[in-house]
Fold this protein.
Amino acid sequence: MKKFIIAFLITTVAFAQDNSERVVEVSLNACECISEIDTKLDYEAKSTEIKECIKSANSSYQLTNSILNVSEEIAKDKKETKDVSKDTIQAKKEYTISFDPEKDYQEIEAYLLETCGDMKSIYFSTDKKSRKSVSKNEEALAYYVAANQLKDDADYEKAIALYKKALEIDEKFAFAWDNLGITYRKLNRFEDAIFAYKKSLKIDPKGTMPLVNIAIVYQLIGEYDNSIKYYNKLKKYNKDNPEAYFGLARMYFIKENYKEASDNILKAYILYSKIESPYKSDAEQILSAIYQQLKAKDQLDILKDAAKANKIDLGL
């Protein structure tokens, strides 16, 4: 295994959020692009698509402004030329239009992590199908598609009614249960959401979407042991899913079990790094919080041992 080196722990990780007009505009355009990413892609492919959205939006913004600046410069030079004596020799001037897709990439990405809801929902959603994921009944599918559109338009009550119609026709329609759960969660109807996710998991116990979402809902209502239970199931069925380890780290951190929190957040960091995920920065922040707590308690050996076990050099 590659040995990772993390040298950010000596001080608390904090991204200086740049809310300049440029960052905001680039982020808005990038978020719109991100909303079109196919949720069927794996995490690595989604990371690549998100990067391309950011770079494309960044390049477009810079290119437009560079052209405007050059146009203004040309107009200014033409005006000044008219005032120059005919006997004056003018040196030929070159105008450059330039852009750099990597410019301020970290600032834009950090802003997106905070503001682009589609980014996280698409990144951690999965439409990977099992035998019972999608109904073969055309009427049930029609209700499901219409419900998804209503959900996307934030018309949640009507969406719920249509998901229920789809499920009345085909109660084994796992994706309908998944999205019904998501819609209930949008309305803070957490117990209803849990019921829907459990229905989905009864159909497909390995379903990534319901496992992630039921763990999140249990976290939201403060049932941390149940949240841990489902994150562990997610880890069991999908050992390369960084969200399983990240979720476990957060739960163990809340419960002040710093040994388990350290081990899981380091595993999450490695997996996020391997797929170049934008959510690596979230792992860094949890890791830094663990470091600060253990340092205050004079228990940094817990983190050092976890780092050694995961072949990570923390620079401590």
